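in:
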């Protein structure tokens, strides 16, 4: 069977969208902190959760939010400031708390029915989202449970403040609006804009901010993302040149020639989507590029579409959750004021997701199905 080369993809709009998210996320984080929103959410969290459950609580919250809204970037933009505030108050590691949110955000990015990676994976492999979800949960859930166990162990030494500061529920409203609107399916750009406007209005109304401090906070938040914006632009130019020179097309067109077994076919699909994601720093584009050839290879070696879609999605999220030039780590690092490389050692969920996917490929054959040639 002759493989059909995937069409070339242009992602200039995606890069511009990423840069706009960086800018809005930085502005929202700075304004929310200036008007007291972050401090109040931190105080509320510390008053509810004991110290040894704080990391677990952050991870579960990130999992649920990302699963509901289908975007890891939106989840990171909303929760990292809270994670940083909690880490600062409890004296725990800021890179660790930031990594907890990043890992949880990738859980929902991988599994959510409204995630662009889920939509792209099921579309390219020709399977239903519900079927892909059932195959995918067999990989993602064990990884999440093992991650929870790790965070319970690491959280044992965290001592929460037994007397957190006061809580003003009105100051928490911007985050409530962000979560509710995101859960309703609103685009992350509009969600962040609503968050910015609501935080500014409440801050001005309560007198916790003036017009001058509002402007200063907005500027500082945006300027705080400056380095990340520059890195993103440079990376985008490099990846675009690789695409134009056919490096990605060459990779995915030749991957099928290197395998002769069904297990090898699945490993080649996993390897190809990882490499393309590293080159493009976009898991959706990686799935779109590799998907057509992966579907042809799956048919040839009798791999069910739902299994192929699951492998594509999990391994793209594994790579995307770890690369320091990806949008997720860049946003998280900018909001936490740390180096992306400082976050990487604590990304337990992406590491476990990749490891369990390999185990799934090598040893789990439940979802194999030999197709007849007549199909």
């Amino acid at each position: 069977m002759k493989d059909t080369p995937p069409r070339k993809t242009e992602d200039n709009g995606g890069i511009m969208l990423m840069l706009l998210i960086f800018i809005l996320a930085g502005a929202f984080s700075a304004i929310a902190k200036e008007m007291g929103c972050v401090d109040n959410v931190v105080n509320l969290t510390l008053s509810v959760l004991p110290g040894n459950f704080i990391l677990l609580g952050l991870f579960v919250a990130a999992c649920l939010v990302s699963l509901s809204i289908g975007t890891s970037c939106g989840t990171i933009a909303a929760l990292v400031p809270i994670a940083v505030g909690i880490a600062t108050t409890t004296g725990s590691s800021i890179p660790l708390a930031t990594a907890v949110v990043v890992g949880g955000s990738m859980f929902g990015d991988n599994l959510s029915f409204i995630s662009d990676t889920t939509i792209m994976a099921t579309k390219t492999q020709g399977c239903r989202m519900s079927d892909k979800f059932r195959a995918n949960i067999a990989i993602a859930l064990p990884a999440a449970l093992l991650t929870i166990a790790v965070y319970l162990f690491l959280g044992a030494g965290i001592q929460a403040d037994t007397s957190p500061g006061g809580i003003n529920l009105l100051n928490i409203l911007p985050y409530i609006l962000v979560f509710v609107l995101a859960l309703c399916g609103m685009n992350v750009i509009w969600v962040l804009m609503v968050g910015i406007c609501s935080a500014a209005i409440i801050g001005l109304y309560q007198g916790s901010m003036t017009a001058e401090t509002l402007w200063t906070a907005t500027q500082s938040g945006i300027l705080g993302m400056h380095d990340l914006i520059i890195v993103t632009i440079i990376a985008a130019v490099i990846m675009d040149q690789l695409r134009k020179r056919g490096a990605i097309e060459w990779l995915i067109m030749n991957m099928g020639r290197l395998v002769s077994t069904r297990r090898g076919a699945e490993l080649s699909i996993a390897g190809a989507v990882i490499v393309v994601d590293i080159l493009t720093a976009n898991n959706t584009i990686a799935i779109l590029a590799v998907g057509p050839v992966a579907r042809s290879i799956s048919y040839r070696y009798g791999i069910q579409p739902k299994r192929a879609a699951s492998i594509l999605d999990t391994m793209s999220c594994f790579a995307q959750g770890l690369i320091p030039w990806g949008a997720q780590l860049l946003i998280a690092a900018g909001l936490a004021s740390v180096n992306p490389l400082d976050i990487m050692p604590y990304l337990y969920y992406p590491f476990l997701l990749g490891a369990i996917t390999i185990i799934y490929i090598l040893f789990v054959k439940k979802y194999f199905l030999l197709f007849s040639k007549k199909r």
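note: Residues 42 and 86 are 6 Å apart (CA to CA).
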